[in-house]
């Protein structure tokens, strides 16, 4: 496809020539035809004289009219859509009147989305928990905002927005903004902090809320609201810890929305309203760390944003780094380091499986000239990125030296979009006049940013908690089932996180002795796995069943794959099944039957994993 723009390879828009300052959305939600219908007014700042046209990103959007607004009058614009790129989008050209000068310019666009817009998911009442009302939600990251509004769909551009949404009277509408006014069937919203287009978000359903703290509520369908409030009861404490690490919270409200099971990610950091997967509802708060991650994004990603997705590690690596600090402040340094060690286990698995044929995507800074951000998505920017930051922190003298720098970096680039060089320059500017100057010279930037594979240096981490899971993985992989029955060590009490880590490490073992149904049954009875609600645990047990080629467990494996469409779980399950010749036809048949219930980003990547694209 080549690079679509100078600043962002995945966007046709030209932020070097024109940039969006504010957008006003007017939407009518049409559940019958699964479309958003309405308009947008973009207030642009034109950065050079004589601009001939405005280029916006679109994907399957039907533009009905475009006008320049000037005072009380408007001038119709000639417009056309061209240069479509599969799974990326197309170019909307708005031809401007001759002699358009630098400065402010407002454009009105009337349009409707396609009935299968890649950034929207429409559920019929049967697919919801309550079974009475439909539900709709969006997922715009990385480049799907262009499917719900013609826009500069690049994180290089940040804008404020207002929205007026018409929706069924008996449903609640929420957005990545503060609610300004609620009337029957009409809700208005206001986002006063500039955001990139990928943080535009909407959800409409039969939703209720419960308070989690002074500026925090959890929203969900009524059937699970109490469970959600209990699971995420530590949200305010996490927010407090994040403020301690990062500085003031600028978004005013921090709400959570627990999504339907087809939501493709663990969480999405939509400002004022984080979306989270229901697979976090483990009953013991053991998976609530995802909320710490999304809270951290309020600074790293939402306030200081990667300029394009080649530098995605500036969003996600920093966020995991802050997330581990929140865990450390709440649970102590042993848990903080164990969190990082578990992440490294996941990264190893990701590099071995998902990225085995695309080693270039294991670099920290990737080249997206011929690859969409959805196809490049992996745990590399998250875990390799956070490991790099932990390495720099240790090198500079630990948290008491590095955290003040982190705060100053976030303050310096607040409300802006950055590249890796901006971070590097900040680090040098901050430390160059101190006794840490020589330490900076030890950082091999080229090695960290461009080498493939695992992080080149793993910082020293406290392995107390990880040693238990390592030892268990060793025992279960090297001993027979009979030997394990008699072994007292396997019966020791372990935490949920140690169980998850041990099962993950077991999957990573090159060889597991005597991997039979009998051994898996012993595993299940020893750790009470048949009763567990924990999706992370179930996911790993299903993968072990596939490794053991237990065809009689196929219904259970498929049921888990269909119970949620979180990509972290369903992609590896489908990849594993795709490598098992007898199971592949079953996997393909099941995928064909459920793919229309998945969001586009999920069905697209699984189709690629299965070799269908």
TrEMBL record:
Transmembrane annotation, as ranges: none
GO biological process: leukotriene biosynthetic process; peptide catabolic process; proteolysis
Location of the Peptidase M1 leukotriene A4 hydrolase/aminopeptidase C-terminal domain: 464-610
EC number: 3.3.2.6
Gene3D superfamilies: 3.30.2010.30, Neutral Protease Domain 2, Peptidase M1, leukotriene A4 hydrolase/aminopeptidase C-terminal domain, tricorn interacting facor f3 domain
Catalytic activity line of the entry: leukotriene A4 + H2O = leukotriene B4
A GO-annotated cellular component: cytosol
Membrane topology field: Lipid-anchor; GPI-anchor
Entry keyword annotation includes Protease: yes
Entry keyword annotation includes Hydrolase: yes
Pathway the protein acts in: Lipid metabolism; leukotriene B4 biosynthesis
Family (UniProt): Belongs to the peptidase M1 family.
Protein name as it appears in the record: Leukotriene A(4) hydrolase
Organism the protein comes from: Stomoxys calcitrans (Stable fly)
Encoding gene, per UniProt annotation: 106089167
């Amino acid at each position: 496809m080549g690079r679509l723009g100078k600043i962002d390879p995945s966007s046709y828009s030209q932020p070097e020539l024109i940039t969006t300052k504010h957008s006003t959305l007017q939407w009518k939600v049409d559940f019958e035809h699964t479309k958003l219908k309405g308009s947008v007014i973009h207030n642009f700042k034109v950065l050079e004289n004589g601009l001939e046209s405005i280029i916006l990103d679109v994907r399957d959007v039907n533009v009905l009219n475009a006008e320049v607004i000037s005072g009380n009058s408007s001038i119709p614009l000639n417009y056309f859509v061209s240069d479509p790129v599969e799974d990326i989008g197309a170019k909307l050209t708005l031809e401007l009147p001759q002699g358009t000068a630098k400065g402010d310019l407002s454009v009105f666009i009337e349009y409707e989305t396609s009935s299968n817009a890649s950034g929207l998911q429409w559920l019929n009442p049967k697919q919801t928990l309550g079974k009475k009302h439909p539900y709709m939600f969006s997922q715009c990251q990385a480049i799907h905002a262009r499917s719900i509004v013609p826009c500069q769909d690049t994180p290089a551009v940040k804008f404020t927005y207002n929205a007026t949404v018409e929706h069924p009277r008996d449903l609640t509408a929420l957005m990545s903004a503060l609610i300004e006014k609620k009337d029957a069937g009409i809700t208005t919203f206001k986002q006063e902090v500039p955001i990139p287009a990928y943080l535009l978000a909407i959800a409409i359903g039969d939703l209720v809320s419960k308070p989690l703290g002074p500026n925090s509520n959890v929203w969900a369908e009524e059937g699970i609201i109490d469970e959600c409030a209990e699971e995420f009861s530590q949200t305010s404490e996490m927010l407090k810890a994040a403020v301690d690490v990062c500085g003031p919270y600028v978004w005013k409200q921090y709400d959570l929305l627990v999504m339907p099971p087809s939501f493709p990610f663990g969480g999405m950091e939509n400002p004022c309203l984080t979306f989270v997967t229901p697979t976090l509802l483990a009953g013991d708060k053991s998976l609530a760390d995802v909320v710490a991650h999304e809270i951290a994004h309020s600074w790293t990603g939402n306030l200081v944003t990667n300029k394009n997705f080649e530098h995605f590690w500036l969003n996600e690596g920093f966020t995991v780094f802050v997330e581990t600090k929140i865990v450390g402040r709440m649970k102590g340094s042993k848990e903080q380091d164990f969190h990082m060690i578990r992440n490294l286990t996941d990264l190893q698995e990701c590099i071995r499986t998902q990225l085995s044929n695309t080693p270039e995507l294991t670099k920290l800074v990737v080249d997206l000239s011929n690859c969409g951000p959805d196809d490049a998505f992996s745990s590399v920017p998250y875990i390799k990125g956070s490991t790099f930051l932990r390495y720099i922190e240790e090198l500079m003298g630990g948290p008491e030296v590095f955290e003040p720098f982190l705060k100053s970096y976030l303050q310096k680039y607040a409300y802006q979009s950055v590249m890796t060089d901006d971070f590097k320059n900040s680090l040098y500017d901050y430390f160059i006049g101190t006794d840490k100057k020589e330490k900076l010279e030890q950082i091999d930037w080229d090695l960290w940013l461009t080498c493939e594979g695992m992080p080149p240096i793993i910082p020293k981490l406290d392995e107390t908690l990880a040693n238990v899971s390592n030892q268990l993985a060793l025992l279960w992989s090297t001993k027979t089932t009979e030997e394990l029955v008699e072994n007292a060590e396997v019966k020791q009490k372990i935490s949920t996180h140690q169980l998850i880590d041990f099962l993950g490490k077991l999957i990573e073992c090159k060889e597991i002795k005597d991997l039979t149904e009998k051994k898996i049954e012993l595993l299940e009875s020893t750790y009470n796995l048949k009763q567990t609600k924990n999706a992370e645990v179930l996911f790993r047990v299903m993968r072990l069943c596939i490794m053991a080629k237990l065809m009689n467990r196929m219904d259970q494996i498929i049921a888990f794959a269909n119970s949620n469409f979180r990509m972290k779980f369903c992609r590896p399950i489908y990849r594993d099944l795709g490598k098992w010749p007898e199971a592949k036809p079953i996997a393909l048949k099941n995928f064909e039957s459920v793919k229309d219930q998945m969001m586009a980003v999920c069905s697209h990547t699984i189709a690629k994993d299965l070799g269908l694209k």
